[in-house]
Amino acid sequence: MSVLGGVSARPDFDTEAPTVPVHIGIIMDGNGRWAEARGLPRVAGHRKGVDALRRTVRHAAKLGVRHLTVFSFSSENWSRPAQEVASLMGLLRRFIEQDLRELDQNNIRVRPIGRRDNLSKEINELLTHAEETTRANTGMTLLVAFNYGGRDEIARACRIVAERVAAGEIAADAVDETLIASYLDTAGIPDPDLIIRTSGESRLSNFLMWQAAYAEFVFVPELWPDFDEAALEAALSEFRNRNRRFGGVVAGVTGG
Q1: Which of the four pLDDT bands, split at 50, 70 and 90, describes residue 128?
Q2: What angle is formed at CA 220 by the lines to CA 219 and CA 225, rounded to 5 degrees?
Q3: N or C: fewer beta carbons within 10 Å in the chain?
Q4: Element (H, E) at 158
Q5: Residue 120: inside a domain
């Protein structure tokens, strides 16, 4: 699949699942429930969730995953209690301060996605620092979905396209999926092959709404702090057994 100029609705690659997905998205769910089950404050679950994130990033890079997108903080998470939000901001700060050097040394590129114009100056500077420090790296790209919502992302892209049409820079009949995709936060990144959600929940929750059109979904029972290398390997094993038809028909395969 070409990663230039957006991504088509019908990706042009083999319908057999590759040994390792090119792009994995993860909805890291269950930190609060993990803590509550142990009589701990929710922030303790978020701290353990950072440990799970470290394990997953290291293992995904070791396996040869080219792009890993993690849903770290949604645009809806601001409605959580102020103390919990403040704790999450602190964890983001510590993760960047403590882990950025290791990510950079391991040739991992950090690319934040999500809305930036309504974030504090401090958080914006942290995200920019991580992005700039690792920009030249050529290994796995770690996309950090922060203050991110899939519908908001699509709306922002469409707004830019509409402004360009109104300015006469783009003809209305030139607006297509490829053009819109080129204005998404993930522009230049192939759509995810696999999306994993932890904690047993079975919904997308506004994550990569456009990009997930032909992704395979694996919902696992582990709460995010318990997600480890074995859980990732199990999800990848299930992915390999899928037949990816992208709306077409594969010879010898029955079903819709």
Answers
A1: very high
A2: 125
A3: C
A4: helix 150-166
A5: yes
Q: What is the pLDDT of residue 8?
A: 36
Pairing relation of β-strands 23-27 and 67-74? parallel
Asked if 189 and 3 touch (Cβ cutoff 8 Å), the reply is yes
Percent of the chain beyond pLDDT 70? 88
- Residue 123 belongs to domain spanning: 23-149+191-240
Indicate whether 83 belongs to any domain. yes
> Hey, which residues are catalytic here?
29, 77
The number of beta carbons lying within 10 Å of the beta carbon of residue 93 is 13
Closest CA to 71 of 16, 150, 134: 150
β-pair partners for 144: 70, 112
Q: What is the CATH number of the domain that holds 220?
A: 3.40.1180.10
Q: How far apart are CA 71 and CA 74, in angstroms?
A: 7
Give the ranges where 37-81 is alpha helix by DSSP (H): 42-63
What's the predicted TM-score (pTM) here? Answer: 0.87
Cα–Cα distance, 162 to 153 (Å, whole number): 14
